[in-house]
Amino acid sequence: MSKYIPSPANWVAEQVELYEGSGGTQGTTLKDSGLPVVIVTLRGRKTGAVRKTPLMRAVDDGNYILVASMGGAPKNPVWYYNLKADPNVEIRDETNVFDIRVREISVSNEKQRLWDIAVAAYPPYQEYQDKTDRVIPVFIAEQSS
Fold first, then answer.
1. What does the DSSP 8-state code read for residue 29?
2. How far is CA 140 from CA 37, 89, 133, in A?
3. Are residues 18 and 28 in contact, defined by beta-carbon separation less than 8 angstroms?
4. Which parts of the chain fold into alpha helices (H)?
5. Is 4 part of a structural domain of the chain?
6. How far is it, in rounded angstroms, from Cα 122 to Cα 130?
7. CATH code: domain of residue 19
């Protein structure tokens, strides 16, 4: 197993540590929002290191929707490129942990449907899309039956 490198953003590293250190019983919401997050564990495309990112919990029929919003920044988050390079991830949803493969959604009607679910789970996503010129990428993490 490769070495885990915590996020350079202190709040991200602290949330991952609290979430995982508690076995998924603490740190399960985004800061003061009260809205649930999952921890996505993936591999860095340049370093090969293990990376962990808290993302908003948006679910469609048992599958996770991952939104690469980065708060509406002009560029995609680094984890977007890591997922494109290696779509095999682990998702921790509170005390449940799943090995999942993700894929980016490009079909417009499917992407819109998933986007609407994600915005319902975390309304600021729409504000982020409105303030950036890039189309915010959406991934689906499908659990195998």
1. B
2. 15, 11, 22
3. no
4. 10-21, 78-85, 108-121, 124-131
5. no
6. 14
7. 2.30.110.10
Residue 37: inside a domain: yes
pLDDT of residue 66: 98
Q: Nearest 10 degrees: CA dihedral of 32, 37, 42, 44?
A: -30
Partner residues linked to 52 by β-bridges:
41
50-70 residue pLDDT tens: 999 999 999 999 999 999 999
Q: Which domain holds residue 73?
A: 10-142
pLDDT of residue 31: 80
Mean pLDDT (10-residue bins), the chain, 145 residues: 88 94 94 91 95 96 96 96 96 96 94 97 96 96 78
Residue 5 lies in a domain: no
- Hey, what amino acid is at 117? I
Task: Please give the pLDDT value at position 132.
Answer: 96
Contacts of 97 (CB under 8 A, 6+ apart): 24, 90, 91
Does 1 map to a domain? no
| Structural domain total, the chain | 1
